[in-house]
TrEMBL record:
Protein name in the entry: OmpA-like domain-containing protein
Cross-referenced CDD domains: OmpA_C-like (cd07185)
Primary location recorded for the protein, binned into one broad class: membrane
Record's signal peptide: 1-21
Lineage per the UniProt record: Bacteria, Pseudomonadati, Pseudomonadota, Gammaproteobacteria, Alteromonadales
Record flagged with keyword Translocase: no
Amino acid sequence: MGQNTLLSAVFLVVTAFSASASTFFSTFPDAKYPAEKRIHFTPFDLITAVDGDKLSVLPVSGKLTQHSFELPDSYTLDLVINNYLAQLKKLNAEIVFQCQQEACGDPYVLRDQLAPRITVDTSYPGAYVAAKLTGSSGDVYSVIYAFHREDRYTKVQLVTLETIPEPLDLIVANPAFLQQTPQEVEIKDRRSEDSQDSADHPLLGRMPGSFISRYKQTNFTQVPVIVGMSAAGYQTQPLDAKLTEIRYRMPEEYSLFEISSNYAAAANKLAAESVFHCKGKACGDDAELIKSMGLHQDDNTDEWQDYQLFKLSRPGGDVYFDIYAQGRYDGTPADTTVRVMELSALKDDRVVIDLDALTKAITQSGKATLEGLLFDYDSDQMLSESKTVLEVLASYLKQYPKLDFYVVGHTDDKGHNRYNQSLSQRRAAAVIKQLTEQYQIPASQLAAHGNGEYSPVASNANEAGQRLNRRVELVLRSDKK
């Protein structure tokens, strides 16, 4: 197709449209990859002058239609722009501004001004036209931008803006709402999802809709709590206490502020003393905060965190409780951990085994229960008071180096049986590790075995029996298999 024929075809098609038509310009023959976007109402700046890297603009607003397409390399910038100018002249359009290549000023300034409606590729020459027309319902503005990538294509982008009053009646307000009493968001109860054998602490309840994802109780341990912050870091205080640690998964309907405020209100009802409180970035790095408290919890974001520590006095010993609430990056709540620390002294009368009793038990029955060998709750971590038992056990094994033994772990029947077997195995292995590493007992003298819940010595129907069933035994081997 020759150039004269091409121009005639373009004129015939383009002149069939007017400024009030839904599509202002027709598309060129050979156009590829057409795209269209319509915006109900938006502000838009027309460039009216260029002075180096300075642009003058005319703010307009209205209904916007955006078109783009590509033309073959044979369509030059002059050919494309002149076609549009010819049609604009026929429509008696006012050319607000036009420029081409260097006359359009700094290409990077032009790119930033036209984005995001028009894409300027600063590597290739471009041309810009802004025109004003009069439509039947008001002014219409047309912006044409094209750039030519030699030996590849010419890209054309069009913006048509029909000026209309800003449509501010799209949303209807309901005055009756102002007369209503605020209604709480309905939150589903999820107690059925609580971790097995877990429960709220009697001191503090839970936020409705939350559920327990982690539960831990330790009869006696040392708990670090945060009592202050300084330039040097967190100021912590170790508490010797019975620990109940509960991690709650919170519904997304709550805000972190609501969660923390409710726990603070509960503490106030108990007349608890506030020891320390921080929130957000004032709490510092959340990973370091979690580490300082000795929590096993994922870090989320510094901005959405809240830590509170309270103290209660009672005749039987002071009680501390702290609450660490977290939120995700978008502000929705994540986990909230509640710890209750009941201060108490170490009960050191639980170790009843001595070397004579151990020797007698092995001689008479071939096994001995290692009374006083204590572990952290749901863990293979031995408590510090187990050291005396380990020393007695090591002395006995060194006296009888030619005897071989099983170290057998037992549990109560709470929890899944496979988990109990694994826990008992790990506890038996932990005893052997201590004996071999700390007391130089040959590893070949001992073998770990986990018996789980399958050999109780008392009824599991009550706490007293369960406590007796949670034990570690030393069992004499008659052969070496």
